[in-house]
Amino acid sequence: MAGDNRTSVTVVGLGSMGRALAEAFVAAGHPTTVWNRTPGRAGSLVDQGALHAASIADAVAASGLVVTCLTTFEDTRAALEPAARALRGRTLVTLNSGSPAGARETAAWAGAHGARLLTGAVKNVPAAVGAPDTLLYYSGDRAAFEEYEETLTVLGGDTVHLGEEPDLAALYEMAVGAMLLPALVGFFQGAAAVQARGLRVDSMVRFAGKWLDMIKALLPVYAAEIDSGDYSDAASSVNLFLAAAAHDDDLGEETNVDTAWLAPLHDLVRRAAEAGHGEHSVSALTEVLRKSPHSGA
Which residues of the chain have pLDDT under 50? Predict the structure, then answer.
């Protein structure tokens, strides 16, 4: 595609991820307009060839495709509100955190201003933006996705449209993201325990990586068990995890590491056993996590 024919793009929000998005568009030859509430963040992008808009209204008016990278859906709407009239006829892509409810509210807001909306998520760190295997997923207006798919693939080669419902990307972002903090805190607990023995944390990185590979390999198995509701073929049972809870307490006492963050997880395992899932696969914890319609949730 000739450079003059490349889609023009506006990027709103120039934190570390927003800058990475803008840099990827510029590097791919897309005319790129940028805007940030703090103008100084645009300097390096201008040096690379981006155009710095003087106002949010100018930024939105500059391109048919407007990509925002702010913290929340509420922040996105607040930043764009002064330029709401300029959104008519444009495609808005939101790459921020937030709940499905926030995505639905933003879809209604964008629609009221005549914009097509794609909500999305970058499932990697800023340094990985633009890599062939970097995953981004989107939901919302399919026609808009199909029109701009080639342009959006500049941000990551693994680009997926989840469906027309505007809240699907937020749902998957939270569903998948729920794994992150427990996994990281588990690593940090292990790091503190290793250091308590005078050992370097980097000595456990290779082993932790292998452990994560094993967990990754189990995910399709657990997904199949949960989808079918059949937990009877237990490679790792609930009771096995229940018995292991005492080892966590012992480790905490020996290494003087606070393992209190595990208490709710141990309670979840205990409740699963009490509900009759003791000999079932640990994936049966899903059944305990579900709240009944009458639970008041």
Answer: 1-3, 297
